[in-house]
């Protein structure tokens, strides 16, 4: 998660902006780092829903953020978006991530949706406490029940 394909640094009079164009999930990692100040690596095995997959009941608020993000990506995939490979452009300024693109083609709509999914997840993670005991939570501790339905994720954050 630490390699970027391209990083351009733009300077303005009052702000320093970082403009990223990276692939797929690496963009999520960048947005999480921008908003939370924490490396996305810290969330790779966090709880039951952060990282790849997800099962059982989310452990805490941060895990619910990841569940909600999984649901958001699920909606994007239902619309034909490639959540693991689509890329989008964004900026990070003062711990705020902003999507920057035109929304005319199908890919642009997907880019917009994925950027919003990632931005909302990072905003949610910023507000949620990071509890170290969940940072390497084993899957078997999540139970083997089906994944929690997406409509439930909005009520627990």
TrEMBL record:
InterPro entries: PLA2, PLA2-like_dom, PLA2_Asp_AS, PLA2_histidine, PLipase_A2_dom_sf. One of its GO terms (biological process) is lipid catabolic process. Its EC number is 3.1.1.4. It is found in: Secreted. Residues 24-143 form the Phospholipase A2-like central domain. Belongs to the phospholipase A2 family. It comes from Hucho hucho. One of its GO terms (cellular component) is extracellular region. The keyword tRNA processing does not apply. CDD domains: PLA2c. SUPFAM superfamilies: Phospholipase A2, PLA2. The active site is at 69, 118. It holds the Pfam family Phospholip_A2_1. Binds 1 Ca(2+) ion per subunit. Disulfide bonds join 48-142, 50-66, 65-124, 72-117, 81-110, 99-115. Signal peptide: none annotated. PROSITE patterns: PA2_ASP, PA2_HIS. This is Phospholipase A2. Ca(2+) binds at residues 49, 51, 53, 70. Transmembrane segments: none annotated.
């Amino acid at each position: 998660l630490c390699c970027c394909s391209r990083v351009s640094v733009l300077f303005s009079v009052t702000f320093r902006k970082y403009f990223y164009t990276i692939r797929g999930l690496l963009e999520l990692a960048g947005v999480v780092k921008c908003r939370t100040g924490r490396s996305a690596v810290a969330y790779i095995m966090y709880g039951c829903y952060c990282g790849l997959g997800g099962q059982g009941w989310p452990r805490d608020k941060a895990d619910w953020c990841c569940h909600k993000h999984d649901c958001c990506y699920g909606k994007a995939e239902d619309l034909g978006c490639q959540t693991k490979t689509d890329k989008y452009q964004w900026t990070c300024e003062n711990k705020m991530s902003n999507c920057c693109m035109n929304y005319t083609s199908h890919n642009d709509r997907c880019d917009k949706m994925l950027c919003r999914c990632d931005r909302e997840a990072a905003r949610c993670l910023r507000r949620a406490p990071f509890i170290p005991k969940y940072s390497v939570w084993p899957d078997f501790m999540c139970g083997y029940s089906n994944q929690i339905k997406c409509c439930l994720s909005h009520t627990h954050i």
